[in-house]
Specification:
Largest sheet: 5 strands, mixed
Helix content: 25-40%
Strand order of the largest sheet: 2-1-5-3-4
Number of strands: 5
Mean pLDDT: 95
Shape: globular
Length: 163
């Protein structure tokens, strides 16, 4: 048995039929072909699957798709720069500029978590960033450049707001 859910996905109205036990990560990757959201652990431990549900970061590998009905979902594919531009989001640009990624597997989840952190608290300290990223695992970078990237991205997001 399937259920139809309707929600806003990356700014666009979306309706899909899903099995009630379908996870959001599975829906995104397998049915909607949005493969930027990664599945690393299936237990909410690694953070590679973070998306924004109604503006809040959630781990999509343990969230059932019917929970999306009537909601707004933002994935890494919907993270963009200034409207009408072909620019990256300021946080994405900061990760590129400050070498906040290596293999890239954790990057979508890191970016989505970082954007949520910077939105919630624009004047992030290093301690804030380290605490806020505790639910995201990176096996390559050693985190220092990720922390620098998040702080630079938060500052860039504030600069864009101030324009």
């Amino acid at each position: 048995m399937t259920v139809q859910i309707s929600f806003t996905l990356n700014g666009r109205p979306t309706s899909v039929d899903v099995e009630p036990a379908t996870l959001v990560a599975e829906l995104l990757r397998e049915q909607l072909h949005l493969t930027g959201t990664h599945i690393g652990c299936d237990t909410s431990q690694c953070g590679a699957c973070v998306v924004h549900l109604n503006g809040l970061p959630v781990k999509s590998c343990t969230l059932l798709a019917p929970a999306l009905d009537g909601a707004t979902l933002l994935t890494i594919e919907g993270l963009t720069g200034a409207p009408g531009s072909n620019q990256m989001h300021p946080m994405q640009e900061a990760f590129r500029e400050h070498h906040g990624l290596q293999c890239g597997f954790c990057t979508p989840g890191m970016l989505m978590t970082a954007v949520a952190l910077a939105t919630e608290k624009p004047d992030l300290t290093e301690a804030d960033v380290r605490h806020g990223l505790e639910g995201n695992i990176c096996r390559c970078t050693g985190y220092q450049n990720i922390v620098i990237s998040v702080m630079a991205g938060a500052a860039a997001m504030q600069a864009v707001k101030g324009e």
